[in-house]
Amino acid sequence: MDPVASELAVLGWGPAWENEFGAFRSAGLEPARVAVEDKHAYVLLGGAGEVTATVAGRLLHEAQAEASVGLPKVGDWVAAARSGGSREAVIEAVLPRRTRLARKLAGREVAEQVLAANLDTAMVVQSLDATFNLRRLERFLVMAHEGGARPVVVLNKADLGEQVAERARAAVRSAGAVPVIVASARTGQGLEELRAWVRPGETVALVGTSGVGKSSLINRLYGEDIQATLEVRARDAKGRHTTTWRELIVLPSGGLVIDTPGMREFHMWVADEGLEETFPDIAELAAGCRFRDCRHASEAPCAVKDAVASGKLDRGRYESYLKLQRELAYLSEERRQHTYQVRKRRAKTGVRAFLRRPKDRSGGRTY
Ligand SMILES: Nc1nc2c(ncn2[C@@H]2O[C@H](COP(=O)(O)OP(=O)(O)OP(=O)(O)O)[C@@H](O)[C@H]2O)c(=O)[nH]1
Ligand SMILES: [Mg+2]
Ligand SMILES: [Zn+2]
């Protein structure tokens, strides 16, 4: 393989991507992967190594269209224009994402925020200390399922607390068929198991709330402290996250990881499939409900409610399911109205209004 091709293969490029790239190739563009995104400035990795990049005006414009994949996100494959040996490039197009991790933007308007693109595995990281929260784990799993990547649960800080075994068992029950790894970035426990998921050419994104140890685990995988970590206490004093941007990191051992800032306000933006896959036990029970479209809330008779009454289904889990179901219903309604408003506005004011980037409602760089 020529050096450029092997460099791209390290980043996860392959024949299927190359197929899609044909027209861009003919136009003299080169493929590159987004490693860092900072407002309008990007760092790309590609056959030429690392280059900085900006987004072409035309793409910036097109990104406002409803059906568009939007602006490039970490993990995206892009078509870049670069002259000769220049270290600067212009991103002309974003290749369609195969998978993604996305969440709803905080604030009133419903919009999707893509956290990471083209990941093979979504590692949902939780700490086994007192912050352990099954309901939160389920929420993250819904998001992971919906984005199309393989979810894996990582329970970190196994070196802390006396309830490790108990919490791990509860997580395994909640996770269903999703693998659960008990780990400690401090002692190295579970790191080999975790490493097995970071295969050469594959991309693993770590998500979870702030302080669970995502960056610490990545440092372990890398074999060096490349990502800043901060004690949870110190972090609270400053009131912010330690990792403040998303970054795609190439591990020396092959394989790619995406570090993400912890999520504070966690909103989801998911379809019903994510819910079904996260609660397969409830989906299975639902087969016994009288009505095919049973919501398992107020209907009677209902096999899911029966299972709660008999203790076969955990009440907390059932309530968590109902809560997520309500949230999803609310979101899809809000999304419908939002789409309608956007259409109306566009009809009135024409395309020009969309040249402005949507206002960032997330309250700064830590979302
Ligand atoms: N005891 C123990 N502490 C850990 C472990 N992993 C991480 N920590 C500590 O937990 C704190 C937070 O770790 P980080 O890696 O910064 O957490 P993070 O998930 O990257 O946080 P954000 O970047 O804010 O999202 C640091 O003080 C780490 O040293 C572990 O396995 N055991
Ligand atoms: Mg971090
Ligand atoms: Zn039912």
The CATH architecture term of the largest domain is 3-Layer(aba) Sandwich
Strand order of the largest sheet: 10-9-8-11-13-12
Termini, distance in Å? 41 Å
* CATH class (first level) name of the largest domain: Alpha Beta
What is the chain-wise order of helices and strands?
A: HHEEEHEEEEEHEHEHEHHEEHHHH
Give a brief rundown of this model.
The protein has helices at residues 3-10, 15-26, 57-62, 134-146, 164-175, 191-195, 214-222, 232-238, 272-278, 280-286, 303-309, 315-349; strands at 30-38, 41-46, 49-55, 77-81, 88-94, 100-104, 112-117, 121-127, 150-156, 180-182, 203-207, 247-250, 256-259.
Account of the 3D structure:
This protein is α/β, with parallel strands linked by helices. It has 3 domains: 3-94, OB fold (Dihydrolipoamide Acetyltransferase, E2P) (Beta Barrel), CATH 2.40.50.140; 100-259, P-loop containing nucleotide triphosphate hydrolases (Rossmann fold); 279-355, Orthogonal Bundle (Ribonucleotide Reductase Protein R1, domain 1). The chain has 12 helices and 13 strands. It has helices spanning 3-10, 15-26, 57-62, 134-146, 164-175, 191-195, 214-222, 232-238, 272-278, 280-286, 303-309, 315-349, and strands at residues 30-38, 41-46, 49-55, 77-81, 88-94, 100-104, 112-117, 121-127, 150-156, 180-182, 203-207, 247-250, 256-259. The strands form 3 sheets. The protein has a 6-stranded mixed β-sheet with strand order 10-9-8-11-13-12, sandwiched between helices. Strand 4 (77-81) and strand 5 (88-94) form a beta hairpin. The structure holds guanosine-5'-triphosphate, magnesium ion and zinc ion. The site of zinc ion has 8 residues, from helix 11.
